[in-house]
Amino acid sequence: MSALLSVRDLSIGFGSGPSVVSGVSFDVEPGQTLALVGESGSGKTISCRAALRILPRTAQIRSGTITLNDSKGTANLTELSERQMRGIRGNRISMIFQEPMRSLSPLHKIGNQVSEVLWLHRGASESEARKEVLGQFERVGFPDPARAYDSYPFEMSGGMRQRAMIAMAMVSKPELLIADEPTTALDVTTQAQVLGLIKELQRETGMALILVTHDLGVVANMAEQVVVMHKGRVMEAGPAEPILNNPAHPYTQQLFDAAPEIPDQEAVGLPMPDEDLILQMTGVSKTYTMRSSKGWSANKLIHACRGVDMKLARGKTLAIVGESGSGKTTAARIALGAELPDPGGEVLFRTTQDADPITVHSMTRAERTAFQRKAQMVFQDPYSSLSPRMRIQDAMTEPLEIHRIGNSAEQRDKAAEMLQRVGLNSDMLKRYPHAFSGGQRQRLSIARAMMLDPALIVCDEPTSALDVSVQEQILTLLENLQDSLNLSYLFISHDLAVVARIADEVAVMRRGLVVEQAPPETLFYNPRHPYTKALIAAQPEPDINRPIDLKLVALGAGSPDSWDDAFRFSDTVIPSLVELEPGHKVRCHV
């Protein structure tokens, strides 16, 4: 049997510079999953983009061939005209892009953008396309497919936008799907369901898959063949089992060593101390009103947070985990004063141990200015949070200028000091954000948050888009900064392996509610709530002999109506958060 896609001796370069991809070769068989693994900048994505001929204008394929052998014939993709390639893109070969916000039009509704694939390649009518797209939306995990169909990209969370991209790529049932970090922005339960969905589609249609990823747990669950790339070259290639069980190349071994895992040893964690709390949230709820698109329909209430009670001790880390839309980021924004809670909710902040608590949402202008110096945020997407038109020096000194701290020379020295503290060189101050890798941009975001010497930092998915080696560096950096400066972190994540490493206490959220809360040592080895069990079961491990248990994931990640009677809740009947053992709280009917 001939390969569905055959890449031979591919070399790609930019302008007159050296080749960034050199001599890359691999084959993808029909129905097979090939994983391209490596760090950012290793050449994985650009090799895949070459197959669809969507390279940047300055890039050129310098040598090699890319051949497609599908049911419609054989084609050398490097020689086809642009007109011929239009019939292949999105139809015979589809691609899921890593950054959905940059790949989706902000001016068109999600449903119309996904339906366009069926209009162009199948000639489907509007009603036929809508019916098929709604079905696809349901399969990729949209809780309300009709609402998602009529929403714009900016009205959705990052995870929801990624689901829309996956639906767009799979709705035409292509013969080859190229998935570029398809689950990076997804929580682990949705990731497990999406990976299961892709496998199911492969069985139904015989679709082949090229999976570009840095997550070795995903590779272990999905791939039959693995190609490990580094600096544009293939380091190791072959069947997945021997590579994952016994990697031969030192670089592959290095990737395994950097991959975070939930520890195996059982332990009893101690609850977070109450004597020196820097942040305390009591009875915090947040309700949004979504206006109906039809004049005769009632407006819909969206409960983003409901009765959230959390305490963060000084110098400690409280992690909030949960799926997209569970209320994690809303709770963090309320903690920072960026959102007003519903009446009855209260957030208290103490600048020092002996200071009187400040009510965050009742501050005077002077108190708010002082609070903003002490509480900062590191955002999920460092590229979007740094202005592309500002040099790094200007972006970093801006907080000091706003708060009128120091003169220009002192501000510049402070910026240089912060860059060195996060492992970057001070001569990078004159560069723009686009000149940095993803990991370097995340370091810049952390350095900018540190400019005002804060006591509290809210980290919103700070490692979700990073490859494992860079993720390891960022986590080590955060730990070192906490130890040396006694920082407190409110850490938002969907990666339980990361949480197990960095957190002193974990709060699990689902549909705006904290459903379980405990130290990680207790939570991971004695989970009580079905949703927590689903999160742990959905965590992919770099072990080909320990696949994800999709049945357990589906049980806990499903509707609360499907849970056991002890944990079941609805909009009108919500059980209390009960302390079953010291420091271990579970939302259940006692």
TrEMBL record:
UniProt keyword annotation of Oxidoreductase present: no
Residue ranges of every copy of the ABC transporter domain listed in the record: 5-256, 279-536
CDD domains (alphabetical): ABC_NikE_OppD_transporters
Membrane topology: Peripheral membrane protein
Cellular compartment(s): Cell inner membrane
A GO term, aspect molecular function: ATP hydrolysis activity
Keyword set, alphabetical order: ATP-binding, Cell membrane, Membrane, Nucleotide-binding, Transport
UniProt-listed InterPro entries: AAA+_ATPase (IPR003593), ABC_Ni/Peptide_Import (IPR050388), ABC_transporter-like_ATP-bd (IPR003439), ABC_transporter-like_CS (IPR017871), Oligopep_ABC_C (IPR013563), P-loop_NTPase (IPR027417)
Gene3D superfamilies documented for this protein: P-loop containing nucleotide triphosphate hydrolases
Main location: membrane
A GO CC term assigned to this protein in UniProt: plasma membrane
BP terms from Gene Ontology: peptide transport; transmembrane transport
UniProt similarity note: Belongs to the ABC transporter superfamily.
NCBIfam families: PRK11308.1
Listed name of the protein: Peptide/nickel transport system ATP-binding protein
